[in-house]
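Please decode residue identities from the backbone states below.
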């Protein structure tokens, strides 16, 4: 497969129409159609379902869309790195992070580094630890900020001394809103929204103990903002980290910590034996110096 053809394929995917895609690519429609048919022949599978007004993807087409976008992103990132002159520190540092209050400490380092090297910019990707690790493994981001529990055996890392605190997000008119802390038995027969990560669910199962089988997990989430909207609607209670959602007198939701207290650590990770751009290498050095109290490998 040629990169050019993958770009053609993605153009058709996003335009949902071969004619419009051909216009954006500045090629003729017959040429584009022929390239797509050759791509399907090369892969030995049908990628598109061609309708009257637009085209859609088959399951195989959806898989290729994901892989093609990763390949193009990695190619563009590599080209950008080599375009930067070696004698100056410039370029883009790609950072992925989960929803954690400890991101503010990473932000402090990013701001300080940008003041030192104003030609360096950042691209941020938000997702849970599993999403970030996938991007790391595929070379699409340089550095990840992961919340535990998480398997970091194959990464170099810095463990941050700060912790995220677990609790329950609920409406202010919920009966539990008057409690100072939420204990496992308080959540019996409640409708719960929680992280979709298996390791997190196991951690919560341990905290709940025998009560776990009495709760109903009605939804999982990977980013808590959308879950907070479900909480506002009265759909259920969200188990999440503290300080991620605005809690004030003007909102109708509140947050209560768990008891016994449940905390999660955060680690900054990057791939072992990875060769980084000069900008990323210097930024990692700053992180190590800044978080000298954490464990660095």
């Amino acid at each position: 497969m040629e990169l050019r053809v993958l770009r053609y394929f993605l153009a058709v995917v996003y335009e949902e129409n071969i004619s419009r895609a051909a216009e954006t690519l500045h090629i003729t429609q017959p040429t584009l159609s022929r390239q797509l048919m050759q791509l399907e022949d090369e892969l030995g599978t049908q990628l598109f379902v061609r309708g009257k007004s637009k085209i859609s993807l088959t399951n195989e087409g959806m898989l290729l869309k994901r892989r093609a976008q990763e390949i193009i992103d990695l190619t563009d990132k590599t080209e950008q790195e080599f375009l930067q002159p070696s004698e100056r520190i410039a370029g883009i540092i790609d950072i992925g992070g989960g929803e954690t209050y400890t991101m503010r400490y990473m932000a402090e380092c990013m701001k300080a580094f940008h003041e030192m090297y104003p030609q360096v910019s950042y691209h941020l990707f938000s997702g849970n630890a599993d999403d970030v690790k996938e991007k790391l493994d595929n070379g699409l981001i340089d550095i990840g900020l992961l919340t535990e529990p998480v398997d970091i055996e194959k990464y170099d890392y810095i463990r941050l001394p700060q912790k995220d605190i677990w609790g329950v997000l609920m409406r202010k008119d919920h009966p539990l809103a008057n409690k100072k802390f939420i204990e496992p038995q308080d959540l019996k027969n409640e409708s719960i929204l929680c992280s979709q990560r298996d390791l997190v669910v196991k951690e919560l199962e341990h905290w709940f103990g025998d009560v776990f089988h009495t709760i109903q997990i009605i939804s999982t989430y990977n980013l808590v903002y959308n879950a907070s909207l479900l909480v506002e609607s009265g759909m259920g209670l969200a188990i999440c980290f503290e300080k991620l959602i605005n809690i004030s007198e003007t909102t109708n939701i509140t947050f209560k910590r768990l008891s016994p207290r449940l905390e999660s650590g955060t680690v900054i990770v990057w791939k072992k034996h990875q060769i980084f751009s000069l900008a990323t290498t210097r930024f990692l050095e700053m992180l190590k110096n800044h978080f000298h109290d954490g464990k660095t490998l």
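Observation: Confidence is low (pLDDT under 50) at residues 293-297.
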